[in-house]
């Protein structure tokens, strides 16, 4: 596949949301159009799409967020038709390169227990499980 990786922009969002639905990424309030636009504005150069340049179609996507201390990876997705062909690794390498360029010292990701198999993917590209941590959250929206 001939592809480019470029920064995700607002006009990419409908294709990106289709891709996330296809690969069963759990979508929440934070994936509403306006919320995603806010994410893109807040994290210039860290939210990426992988585009098939022949079909002019988005086949990969990932959101990167920097909170001033840690970098966060959200919603990494590669189209089902090209999974297992290293495109996920390539897209992760690019987002990691961009975080490094910004001197970010550590990246974090949350993985749903229902998607536990994907841990093998992250292990293969060098990530470690932190079994000394539990994730908690507090919803600030009704
Ligand atoms: C996870 C995902 C992004 C990986 O992208 P990919 O292009 O298929 O992965 P790669 O081809 O780069 O895989 C690299 C290695 O990880 C392994 N791997 C990839 N996905 C895996 C999975 N779900 N479970 C176990 N191993 C996996 C591959 O077999 C490969 O192993 P190898 O180096 O021994 O050949 C992609 O499968 C996907 O979009 N999945 C659905 C959405 C999802 O779960 N996203 C993660 C949210 S946390």
UniProtKB/TrEMBL annotation:
Q: What EC number(s) has UniProt assigned to this enzyme?
A: 2.3.1.-
Cross-referenced PROSITE patterns: GNAT
Boundaries of every N-acetyltransferase domain copy:
3-141
Q: Does the keyword Flavoprotein apply?
A: no
Source organism, top-level taxon: Archaea
Among the Pfam families in the record, one is Acetyltransf_1
Q: Which GO terms describe its molecular function?
A: acyltransferase activity, transferring groups other than amino-acyl groups
SUPFAM superfamilies xref list: Acyl-CoA N-acyltransferases (Nat)
Matching InterPro entries: Acyl_CoA_acyltransferase (IPR016181), GNAT_dom (IPR000182)
Q: Which UniProt keywords apply?
A: Acyltransferase, Transferase
Protein's UniProt name: GNAT family N-acetyltransferase
